[in-house]
Amino acid sequence: MRKKLVVGNWKMNLIQPQAVSLVEALVRKIAVTDAVEVAVCPPYTSIGAVAQALKGTKISVGAQNVFWKDSGAFTGCVSAPMLADAGCKLCIVGHSETRGRFGKLEIDADDVGYFAETDKTVNQKIKALLYHSLMPILCVGETLAEREAGNTDDVIRRQLEGALAGVDCSELGCFSVAYEPVWAIGTGQVCDSKEASRVCGMIRKTLAGMYDQETADAIRILYGGSVKGSNSKELFSQPDIDGGLVGGASLDPDDFATIVLSAV
Ligand code: PGA
């Protein structure tokens, strides 16, 4: 039986005092039981303060991105051993925003290349995280145009195979996937729960084909994209959805607490 996992992706929000207040509120509201695992992913600048504030609680801290080299002349980058040192246990990889795929384009099209993460860099990041015993949360998902063209499953299979190229099943001890349809992220347009579960099931089947059923059955597959307290119970009760990756609603302690409790 897979334990449900609920992860807050704070994106580029909150300075340190706000970040600490948010987790202090969460600790008061969420009595994390053994039935659910909870983590928050603040921006790099608040990871240390949040890790400190969460010491002794069951809520873990993660990062939103990582560079694959351990150290060196890579200005502006942060490595997996640095994340571990700061108190992280997990890291989001391949989010549609870092891949430069936005549900509703709010930035200048000329600037999209700045976020140019590819299946190859996602693969290198996953290898670095696994090597340093940090759990990757690999995000996969289709754009609206890809869905409308009937390519959803092919896009996701390609993302999975690219991200995990050369990763042996013995290295996949702690690994999870988040199905995040790009058109559902930050739009309020949640994916139908049955369809989300179907895609999560397809992801598990693909992983079973790449590895074996036992390995695939041990991997948590989350849903992300406009998860809120009002829809999380329905999503988390689907057979193939093992929790959620929550953006906007994770900045509201009441809503995030409701989401976590609905996973129990
Ligand atoms: P959202 O974001 O919950 O605000 O849609 C989810 C995510 O980007 O991980």
N-to-C span: 13 Å
Low-confidence spans: none
Q: What's the structural domain tally?
A: 1
Share of helical residues: 25-40%
Q: What name is given to the CATH topology?
A: TIM Barrel
Instruction: Please outline the major beta sheet.
Output: 8 strands, parallel, barrel
The best one-word shape is globular
Just give the CATH class.
Answer: Alpha Beta
Number of strands: 8
Count of DSSP-assigned helices: 10
Task: Give the mean pLDDT.
Answer: 95
Estimated share of beta-strand residues:
15-25%
Cα radius of gyration in angstroms:
17 Å
- Give helix and strand order, one letter per element, not per position: EHEHEHEHEHHEHHEHEH
Strand pairing plus helix content: what structural class?
alpha/beta
Bound small molecules, which ones? 2-phosphoglycolic acid
What is the strand arrangement across the widest sheet?
Answer: 1-2-3-4-5-6-7-8
CATH architecture type: Alpha-Beta Barrel
Under CATH, the homologous superfamily reads: Aldolase class I
Summarize the structure in words.
The protein has ten helices and eight strands. By secondary structure, it is an alpha/beta fold. Strands 1-2-3-4-5-6-7-8 form an eight-stranded parallel β-barrel, surrounded by five helices. Strand 7, helix 9 and strand 8 (243-246) form a beta-alpha-beta unit. Helix 1 crosses helix 10. It is globular. 41% of the residues are buried. The structure holds 2-phosphoglycolic acid. 2-phosphoglycolic acid is lined by residues 9, 180, 185-186, 224-227, 245-249.
